[in-house]
Amino acid sequence: MVTDIPATTDASFGRELVCYESPRPTSGIHRMVLVLYRQLGRDTVLAPSMRHNFNTRTFSRQYNLGSPANAVYFNCQRETGSGGRRFAQE
Questions:
Q1: Where are the beta strands (DSSP E) in the chain?
Q2: N or C: more exposed end of the chain, with fewer CB within 10 A?
Q3: Please, are residues 25 and 77 in contact by the beta-carbon 8 Å criterion?
Q4: Over the stretch 28-70, which tens digit does the pLDDT of each residue have?
Q5: pLDDT, tens digit, for every residue of 7-16?
Q6: Beta bridge partner(s), residue 29
Q7: DSSP 19
Q8: How far from each other are the two terminal CA atoms of the chain, in whole angstroms?
Q9: Helix (H) or strand (E) holding 76
Q10: What distance in Å separates the CA atoms of residue 25 and residue 74, rounded to the nearest whole number?
Q11: What is the pTM of this model?
């Protein structure tokens, strides 16, 4: 989670509150959503206490963030097998 990103720059200029963890589903298909909100001011959002069962709607209400400015949605699943992709030797 990155906050305090100046409007004319990118996320590297923001303040990282929670580091990014890539998806690692153990089974089945998992839905991932990345959501972008516009903050009302700097230093107005604190890191959530835990990742497990994080609720975006509750977080948005708590910090008066309003509706999302943008969002990205994707599905991911674990690759079959235990060693990833294997290529045949020629």
A1: 2-3, 15-16, 29-36, 70-77
A2: C
A3: yes
A4: 888 888 888 888 878 878 888 777 788 889 988 998 988 888 8
A5: 778 878 888 8
A6: 77
A7: -
A8: 45
A9: strand 70-77
A10: 13
A11: 0.64
The span from the CA of 90 to the CA of 87, in Å, is: 9
C-alpha 77, offset from chain centre: 17
Alpha helices for the chain (secondary structure H): 56-62
Question: Residues 18, 51: contact at Cβ < 8 Å?
Answer: yes
Would the pLDDT of 74 be above 80? Answer: yes
- In the predicted model, is pLDDT for residue 85 greater than 70? no
**The token pair that represents 22 in the structure block:** 């890539």
Sorted by where each begins, the domain ranges of the chain are 2-77
Q: How confident is the model at residue 81 (pLDDT cuts 50, 70, 90)?
A: low
Answer yes or no: are the C-beta atoms of 48 and 59 closer than 8 Å.
yes
